[in-house]
Specification:
CATH class of the largest domain: Alpha Beta
Distance between the termini: 64 Å
CATH topology of the largest domain: Beta Polymerase, domain 2
Number of helices: 5
Helix content: 25-40%
Largest sheet: 3 strands, mixed
Number of strands: 5
Strand order of the largest sheet: 1-2-3
CATH architecture of the largest domain: 2-Layer Sandwich
Shape: rod-shaped
Radius of gyration: 28 Å
Number of domains: 2
Length: 139
């Protein structure tokens, strides 16, 4: 009988379990006690734990009738934002280009030409010597 109740409640709260899995909330315990589904889990952040609670309330605002949940968390800090790789642009040198002109074009300040030189040290030996056709990385 308990197995049937467990299956019924797991179906009802499947979206909660899916969310926990997606947020990598560690499921510590999942069973039926009396007529209630018991879920215990540990989230990485309070923000993730709150998302799980929000999902529980979406499933059933009267969840306390058939669910006991304990979602703890390791940190109050919000989850770190995924870091994106810096955008690298390529500039093909044309006649009349200087690193200062290129820096002005991309950064708005000619004085930032050393950023371009530093990013291209594998191709450039002197910031005053660039040649048409060279492809420079613009960090």
């Amino acid at each position: 009988m308990a197995d049937i109740k467990l299956d019924q409640l797991k179906v009802k709260y499947q979206s909660v379990l899916n969310m926990m899995n997606g947020l990598k909330v560690q499921l510590k315990n999942l069973h039926v006690q009396g007529d209630k589904l018991v879920i215990r889990g540990e989230a990485k952040t309070k923000q993730d734990a709150n998302k799980v609670w929000d999902q529980i309330k979406l499933v059933d605002k009267n969840y306390a009738q058939d669910l006991m949940a304990e979602i703890t968390f390791l940190s109050d800090a919000p989850a770190p934002k995924p870091q994106t790789a810096p955008t690298l642009r390529i500039h093909k040198v044309v006649a009349g280009d200087t690193l200062s002109k290129i820096a002005k074009k991309y950064y708005g300040k000619a004085g930032d030409y050393m950023k371009i030189f530093e990013a291209n040290k594998d191709k450039l030996k002197d910031p005053d010597k660039i040649f048409p056709g060279q492809e420079l990385v613009i960090p």
